[in-house]
Amino acid sequence: MIEELLNPWIRDLVPYSSARSEFSGRADVFLDANESWEGADPGINRYPDPFCSELRQAISEYMGFPFDMTAIGNGSDEIIDLLIRMFAYPGRDAIMVERPTYGTYSVFASISGVEVIDVPLTPSLDLDENAMINTINSRKPKIVFICSPNNPTGRVYPLDKILRIADANTGITVVDEAYADFAEDFESAACAIKDNPRIVVLRTLSKAFGAAGARLGVIIADPVIQQVFMKAKPPYNVPFPSQLAGIRAVKDIENVRRRVEETRIRRAELSSFLNTLPYTKEVFPSEANFVLFRVTDASRLYSYLLERGIVVRNRSSEPMLDNTIRITIGSDGEMERLKEALSGWEG
Ligand code: PMP
Predict the structure, then answer these.
(1) Inter-helix orientation angle 253-276/332-343, to 10°
(2) The pLDDT of residue 341 is above 90
(3) Pocket-testing residue among 72, 80, 102, ligand 1, by greatest number of atoms within 8 A of Cβ
(4) pTM exceeds 0.85
């Protein structure tokens, strides 16, 4: 039962009831929310829709999930934070993450006083199923985070492996699919929620949908979890201009597809190019909008690119990723400038 996994104070939470959530129906004089009668910018004198209804409708149609299984966070980062606060008891519970992976799972857990258990990936950077299931059995983490395609490796994990780990886990398994749109033949863990309601899937409009500045993350979950999320989130967590930008982004599906297609082509070109460089040691196959590669000296290459006005991400401090650099796929022009700079480095 999901309810039993929740922190007791969340289970018993009486949510804040905002003016906008109390009123439903038709009216044209709004004197209920202490807003200004005039907007600093058009439309922004009013509080935004607390339920993000129109955006959720557009997203659930696009992704093919019922409306009551989706909710919107202020970026997936807010959702990660809230899930930890909903399920993990500070000072008692732990979350489990594979390493290396996206860093905020651990940081938000630490902010909440929740222990983080790291399980290293295998030497080939795959999920270590046995180690994860053994740790689940011995340590009973409240939430297991799995990122697929993984940041920063770009690797998609086999869905059957993810689902076996989720089935072994008596707590919540969060599958972060932020980069799913860039993967070929991607199978989402969301299809398994009906069989295992402890699975939660995260998506974001920050990548393929081109709306990182709007801060729009999507949680796909069993309606019970979604309802608790709606109670626990800040009342107006997604600003009005962001909701509008999100609706436009989701409806502009032709451009999303074009961007994904161009990103995949440039990703293949960049990977081949990196392989030709004399100082490249390894290029990791990627299903995301970035490529990770290993060089002779990542710190020196990082500084060299920075001197030329190009910012990349040095991932060398992560376990198993010594001397690695992660490069986001940019525009054609940006990729040309990058390649020109990389060609000029002595190694
Ligand atoms: N998940 C992963 C795996 C990410 O790499 C990122 C951002 N880099 C996020 C979530 C955060 O996404 P958002 O912009 O929706 O907060």
Answers:
(1) 10
(2) yes
(3) 102
(4) yes
Nearest by Cα to 146 from 126, 134, 137:
126
Confidence at residue 198, expressed as pLDDT on a 0 to 100 scale: 98
Burial class (CB in 10 A: 0-12, 13-18, 19+), 72: buried
> Which CATH superfamily groups domain 254-343?
Aspartate Aminotransferase, domain 1 (3.90.1150.10)
For residue 19, what pLDDT is reported? 87
Rg, Å, the chain Cα set: 22
- Kindly give the distance from the C-alpha atom of residue 194 to the centroid of ligand 1, in angstroms, as a whole number: 25
Which residue would you say has higher pLDDT here, 144 or 62?
144
**Residue 308 reports pLDDT greater than 90:** yes
Report how far ligand 1's centroid is from the alpha carbon of 25 (Å): 36
Omega of the bond prior to 149 within 30 degrees of 0, cis?
yes
Which CATH number describes the domain made up of 2-251? Answer: 3.40.640.10
